[in-house]
Amino acid sequence: MNISERTDAFIELGKILSEKCGAGSDAEFDATIRKAEQQNPWFTHDNIINALSEIADMVREDELKKWIAEYSFTSSHSKRVAVIMAGNIPAVGFHDALCVLISGNYLIAKTSSKDAVLIPYILTLLTNIESQFASQYEICTERLPAFDAIICTGSNNTSRYFEYYFGKYPHIIRKNRTSVGIIVPEDTASVYGALGSDIFSYFGLGCRNVSKLYIHESIDVTKILDEFMQFDSLRSHNKYMNNYEYNRSVYLLNQIEHLDTGFMLLKQDEQLHSPLGVVFYETYSDISSLKTQLANIKNELQCVVCSQDTFFHTHTLPGKSQQPKVSEYADNIDTIHFLLNI
Question: What is the DSSP letter of 132?
Fold first, then answer.
């Protein structure tokens, strides 16, 4: 396949996923979602539909063609690229799979045990569109076969093992990252609500989810929490609420000051990574000082969510953290550049 054929197949994949996520679902699609839900209780029906819809939007014709136009694709011999995928949110490994396949390389997809349904389903749809993809990938559930390069996504702990075992190969090894939200005096209630989706979508399990807020000292924090109440449907999810209730008990027993919405705890804390069911926050007075503070921890951040590009030029708008464009790379590492230069 040439780059045009590969691109056209992914564009068609996006159209099919968009249709299935809308009113055009079918028995196989519905059964796949149910199976993914049963395998991983964090993958609710709505979250799966949201994730697949975002994938469909990612590979829209205009976005995809604009993206690939930035690179020079050749017909050189393809490399065998292993991708060890995460399983924190539905189909989170898709972008890496897309990069490997559209660059003309061979994909060895090591799916997470937490997300072993959706990626194979998407790749099957792709093969149904363009049969030549059948010889361009394999799903690996056990030991990795021979490979030329590897992309790994995991925690800070697992990254040490990845470095030990795979450091001798061309590689991208990703560690823990999280996202932060900046609330400025100009923000309105609608911005607070949009920011809530950056916090609560996928239960806050993604690296693009906001786990900490920086709130200007002039802002009444309770007004922000009022807007977060629209996400109180989280109360109906047992596993999420178990985490919330555990952290609530710890704070109460230790008399740690916090604010409680009944499904989320807001705690003033200098740490960046908050536990599930908790959002940390700090107040600030000077935006320039905050920019310097965040620049010092940029390697721990996936997104900086802020409504004002005057302050943060490389920012994500509130409500958009889980809607990355195809050209936005995890950890700001250009995956296509890596793959084309193995």
Answer: G
- List residues bridging with 82 in a β-sheet: 108, 150
Cβ density class 121-135: b for 16+ within 10 Å, e for less: bbbebbbebbeebee
d(CA 332, CA 227): 31
Report the alpha-carbon distance of residue 36 to residue 162 in Å, rounded: 27
Query: What burial class does residue 210 get, using C-beta atoms within 10 Å of its C-beta: 0-12 exposed, 13-18 middle, 19+ buried?
Result: buried
* 161, two tokens: 């093992």
DSSP one-letter code for 89: S
Q: What is the pLDDT of residues 73-90, one digit of tens each?
A: 876 668 999 999 999 999
Q: What is the pLDDT of residue 142?
A: 84
Positive/negative CA dihedral, 184, 185, 188, 189: positive
How far is the C-alpha of 216 from the C-alpha of 43, rounded, in Å? Answer: 34
Alpha carbon distance 86, 316 (integer Å): 23
Alpha helices by DSSP H, listed for 86-166, are 94-102, 118-129, 156-166
Domains and CATH numbers, the chain: 3-176 (3.40.605.10), 178-305 (3.40.309.10)
- 3-state SS class at 234: helix
pTM: 0.94
pLDDT digits (tens, 9 = 90+) for 167-195: 999 999 998 999 999 999 999 999 999 99
DSSP letters, 298-330, are: GGGEEEEE-S-TTT-TT-B-TT-TT---TTPPG
278-284 and 301-305 as β-strands: parallel, antiparallel, unpaired? unpaired
Collapsed DSSP state (helix, strand, coil) of residue 128: helix
Q: What is the DSSP string of 261-272?
A: -SS-EEEE-S-S
Question: Is 318:201 a contact under the CB 8 Å cutoff?
Answer: no
> In Å, what is the CA distance from 300 to each residue of 14, 136, 154, 164, 230?
31, 34, 14, 21, 29
